Amino acid sequence: MATLKEGDKAPAFTAKDQNGKEVSLADFKGKTVILYFYPKDDTPGCTAEACDFRDNYQSLAAKGFEVIGVSTDDEHSHKKFVTKYSLPFTLIADDSQEIVNAYGVWGEKNNFGKVYMGTIRTTFIIDAQGTISHIINKVDTKNSSQQVLDLLA
């Protein structure tokens, strides 16, 4: 599994979004990308995080940011999540776990004493040249967009 750090080149990927359209990181060259990894569609923490990005999407977009969410849920799950919460940004279906492994966010988790493998909630800020400028490991799901803005202020 990859251990990425700030200053590393962001791993390239191509996968399907919530509409079944192929999306590549290269599609966003020249823009600053907020690439956030989350465990599961329509769960409390993941919904709070997605809705925070939704509620602040216009101000993020006005600053030139592209928001992309990634989980191991499939396209159908993403489509329902996007529709239910009116999410204005792309969600990538990584059901093969290639992207979560490339970014080093697939790992052991512990919930109520149950140990299992899953996506470790992490946000990467990728600059216009495709370099990771910031990594947020301790994501505040209710204020995730503000965490990004604070880092880049």
UniProtKB/TrEMBL annotation:
Thiol-specific peroxidase that catalyzes the reduction of hydrogen peroxide and organic hydroperoxides to water and alcohols, respectively. Plays a role in cell protection against oxidative stress by detoxifying peroxides and as sensor of hydrogen peroxide-mediated signaling events. This is thioredoxin-dependent peroxiredoxin. The keyword Signal does not apply. The keyword Disulfide bond applies. Keywords: Antioxidant, Disulfide bond, Oxidoreductase, Peroxidase, Redox-active center. Pfam families: AhpC-TSA (PF00578). GO terms for cellular component: cytoplasm. It comes from Mucilaginibacter yixingensis. Gene3D superfamilies: Glutaredoxin.
